[in-house]
Amino acid sequence: xxxxxxTTFLPHTDPDASLAFYRDTLGFEVRNDVGSxxxxxxxxxxxxxxxxxxxxxxxxxxxxxTDDERRVIDEMMAKGTYGWIMLATxxxxxxxxxLQAGDAEVVQEPTEQPYGTRDCAFRDPAGNLVRIQELR
Length: 136
Hints:
By secondary structure, the protein is an alpha/beta fold. Helix content is 25%, strand content 38%. The strands form 2 sheets. The chain has a 4-stranded mixed sheet with strand order 1-4-3-2, with helices on one face. A 4-stranded mixed sheet has the order 5-8-7-6, covered by helices on one side. The protein starts with 6 loop residues before the first strand and ends with a strand.
């Protein structure tokens, strides 16, 4: 069986702010940008990796979601507990410095974890947790 991760989803509350974070701060390529206003679906991905993407999408647009479920999603996003992603880099310190200089919200500075990895963490403009591991 040959399976690969093609696209993952992260919600956004402000498509322009999310686009700026992933494109300008992280340096991702914009692969697609459709819709308008807050109802935009933006696909971004790391340069040189056309087979891997993140879909930045408005949360709770599924017509099957109830008002109570929308409220819970909004509350979880506001707390930063709804979406997250783990990225990796060969130079964690340089990546951390670039993100910090780009005014990304720092959650954790580069740290050697007890489970054997070194990583740091930020929040994107929608509150999603972005963890970045150092490749070794």
